[in-house]
Design goal:
It contains 14 helices and 8 strands. It has 372 residues and is an alpha/beta fold.
């Protein structure tokens, strides 16, 4: 017989959030790693919050919610709060009971900025790397570096003269006529020295090559180890022609130990200054040779003749997997945040999420007891 199209709820319900999450759901292994990393941050959290006063959002829950926003490509805090309100999987991962009230998106944003002030995401990134090290996933000798452009949350129309002058200079229609006025920049020099974005002053006008258009952007930089392809360093800088090499050297300085190391990189790093700086640090530069200009490469046969050079050049391309994941899933192709510090926080959190998903896959695929 045909069933009735109706619903009658019981007066009482005895269900747990745990019951709604399948035992083989990939978020379970991710949650285990996240919770283990958060345990090492208890002392930091105690120092951030006062012992008295109104209770705020628990920092552990705040970080888990921020991770969900990256993992599930949620475009805004408003959408995140909406999803948490009715998505039981999200509530389970964050640690909210079915009856717990969901935060207002503006309150969530203010608490997120508190984490920024105390570099909590940086510490979380470090704790996750310590977990990877304990499980034998990290190489301490072989690394790769690379950078990627992150389009700023600002338009070309916001890029105006620092002295307040008018770019059109001829009184043409649209000059100074509101935020959506027509603008004619033909023949008008526009550079970071004379202009700045009124929407995001930290953004810089930059183009990756002569064949691409200039955009307002930041540069994200990554240092990857070669054993498991995990990111061990991540930072965002202003977009300029020297940021990649400066950031690479700064990240290499954070690698502990005086033992021999190698660093692979693409042709953009084939400069005499960068190669000399690496060797000064005891790091062998496995940099791709720039053969565009004859005799200009800083790398010669003393480096390229060794088999390890070819291996490094092959493995370094895996760094693009993190950039690709971050741009398609983590929304770092164009940031929705303004200011260098906020973009840096989002970039580090995205690279941390990329690491955690990779670690969860590797640990679940490994034989029981193989990685401890």
């Amino acid at each position: 017989m045909r069933g009735t199209d109706g619903m009658q709820e019981g007066m009482f319900s005895f269900s747990r959030l745990e019951d709604f999450v399948p035992s083989d759901h990939p978020l379970r292994s991710i949650a285990d790693l996240v919770n283990e990393a958060l345990k090492g941050m208890n002392g930091l959290f105690n120092s951030i919050y006062a012992d008295t006063g109104r209770a705020s959002i628990a920092p552990e829950k705040l970080l888990r919610a921020m991770l969900l926003q990256v993992l599930f490509s949620l475009r805004s805090e408003r959408q995140l709060m909406e999803q948490i309100r009715y998505n039981m999987l999200y509530r389970w991962f964050i640690g909210l009971a079915i009856d717990d009230e969901v935060w207002d998106h503006s309150v969530f944003s203010k608490n997120r900025d508190r984490l920024l002030d105390h570099a909590v995401v940086d510490r979380f990134f470090t704790e996750v790397m310590q977990l990877a090290d304990k499980r034998g996933l990290l190489s301490k000798e072989h690394f790769s570096v690379d950078g990627t452009l992150i389009q700023a949350w600002a338009s070309h129309k916001s890029f105006k003269r620092k002295d307040g002058g008018d770019d059109s200079g001829d009184g043409s229609p649209g000059a100074g006529g509101g935020r959506n006025a027509l603008a004619d920049w033909k023949g008008q020099p526009r550079s970071n020295k004379t202009h700045a974005s009124t929407t995001d002053p930290d953004a810089r006008l930059f183009r990756k090559s002569k064949s691409t258009a200039a955009i307002l952007a930041f540069q994200g930089h990554v240092l990857m180890e070669h054993r498991s392809g995990l990111v061990v360093g991540a930072v965002v800088t202003h977009a300029d022609g020297f940021g990649e090499r400066k950031a690479a050297l700064a990240m290499l300085d954070t690698v502990p130990g005086t033992h021999a190391k190698t660093v692979a990189a693409d042709k953009a790093y084939d400069t005499r200054d960068f190669v000399a700086a690496c060797r000064l640090r005891g790091v062998t530069p496995h940099v791709a040779r720039n053969t565009t200009h004859q005799g200009r490469s800083a790398i010669d046969a003393r480096t390229t003749r060794h088999p390890g050079y070819a291996v490094s050049q092959t493995i370094r391309k895996r760094i693009e997997e993190h950039f690709g994941w971050g741009k398609t899933v983590g929304h770092i192709r164009q940031t929705v945040y303004r200011g260098l510090r906020r973009v840096d926080q989002h970039f580090k959190l995205t690279m941390t999420a990329s690491n955690i998903t990779r670690m969860a896959r590797m640990l679940s695929a490994a034989p029981q007891g193989a990685m401890t």
